Amino acid sequence: MAATEVAQSRRIVTEIPGPKSRAIQERRRSAVAQGVGSVLPVYVERAGGGIVEDVDGNALIDFGSGIAVTNVGNADPRVVERAAEQLGRFTHTCFMVNPYEAYVEVCEALNRITPGDHEKRSILLNSGAEAVENAVKIARSATGRQAVVVFDHAYHGRTNLTMGLTAKNMPYKQGFGPFAGEIHRMPMAYPYRWPTGPDNCGPEAAAMVIEQITKQIGAQNVAAVVIEPIQGEGGFIEPAPGFLPAVVEFCRANGIVFVADEVQTGFARTGDMFASEHEGVVPDLITTAKGIAGGLPLAAVTGRAELMDAVHGGGLGGTYGGNPAACAAALAALSAIEADGLVERARAIGELMLGRLRELAAKYEVIGDVRGRGAMIAIELVQDADRTPATEALAKVLSFCHSRGLVLLSAGTYGNVIRMLPPLVIGDELLHEGLDILEEAFAQL
Question: Distance between CA atoms of 214 and 263, rounded to whole angstroms?
């Protein structure tokens, strides 16, 4: 059965996880390292549209998209066909040994669609963390500076450098240090938790960041400011209006490379092709991955030609970077985003979900905040008027939803945020059914 034939309806025929999934889970215990976790250990047989089917025959509503990867849907036929055709011709040569056209085509596409009309260059890599790490390398090489500025609640990856850039200790950093040096963390414009209120958050946070960089580091020593235009693992924190443009202006005035980490926010996810576009921000460098290739591993750094070309020959690359099958899949996925109108679809998903969730927030005091853009939506759970994180409530809600066949993810520095990342091709009926299950979970609380 092809992915397009996956019935777009929830179906529960066993408990979740079912007996076959539990049997595989037992095998896993003696084969897979315990440090690798799974949100919901139902083992997948196939998936398509807004549905994930497991080995027991259960069909679950997908509000996770493999963490914002299957934006165009799982096993989109155009992605499958183009990647399969490439696999039939050759699987690998290494672009640094014998190059191929698809790599160039992906770079041309990224140069065209990323924010800004300046001359650009791109490199292709394997993962978001690898992209962020290379963006820092490029910024340091181009500026001759070393310091890197990041933010509270940030998540940038699991390599040594990107763990250093990441804010949250557990589970990402605990026991893995020491980390790379010359990393400096700044306050994030977090409207829901800003001490003087959301209306003051943007200008106050920007002023604080600029002052701390100037006094504590010296702007002349900063190679790059790295930020997610909407923070992902940190809790889908959308910076207060005005914050990002003010930081960009400061960077421009001081020769600092502004790096937008759009690994999770890119490729139509937020209702713009890239989240930076929402306030007209034009990054010097932009990192992408996740939604770029319809489920195949691919990542990129795209940026100003003078920065990207500042690195010496041979200084960038990697054996698998820009794998030919992944490049073919990316070209199909990028075409699908345009052909299927997925930027506009993401906006429609956001309107539907935010409307329903704000109704829930009016009924249930445990929902402290509803936020997000497009199909990148979160609710933050709190215990009281002091906004104490409600981690136990979150665990109960997730457990209930999982048992009813709704795939949901958690996030947040405080472990109290439910994040929703449905495929952009999901139908309205499944969205409403998933939100009905979520509402039932809060009623159970």
Answer: 28
Torsion 426-429-430-432 (CA) sign: positive
Whole-angstrom CA distances from 296 to 65, 89, 342, 389 are 13, 17, 19, 35
* DSSP H helices in 364-410: 391-403
Q: Give CA–CA dist 222/140, Å, rounded.
A: 9
Considering only CA atoms, which of 180, 221, 218, 187 is closest in space to residue 204? 187
The length of the chain is: 445
Question: What stretch of H or E contains 429?
Answer: helix 428-444
- Alpha helix stretches (DSSP H) within 114-255: 128-143, 160-165, 198-212, 243-253
Q: Kindly tell me if the per-residue pLDDT of 3 is higher than 50.
A: no
Q: What is the pLDDT of residues 39-96, one digit of tens each?
A: 999 999 999 999 999 999 999 999 999 999 999 999 999 999 999 999 999 999 999 9
CB atoms near residue 84 (< 10 Å): 12
Residue 287's closest CA among 65, 72, 92, 115? 115
3-state class (DSSP) for residue 26: helix
pLDDT at residue 2, as a whole number? 42
Residue 348: closest CA among 373, 321, 315: 373
- Which residue in the block uniquely carries the two structure tokens 């027991």? 56
Residue type, 214: T
User: Which 3 state secondary structure label does DSSP give 155?
Assistant: coil
Answer for the pair 210, 250: CB distance below 8 angstroms, yes or no: yes
pTM: 0.96
Cα 349 from Cα 370, distance rounded (Å): 14
Confidence (pLDDT) at 304: 98
Distance CA 106, CA 331 (A): 6
CA nearest 288: which of 413, 111, 91?
111
* Beta strand pairing call for 147-151 and 222-227: parallel
Residue type, 106: V
Q: What mean pLDDT do residues 99-108 have?
A: 98
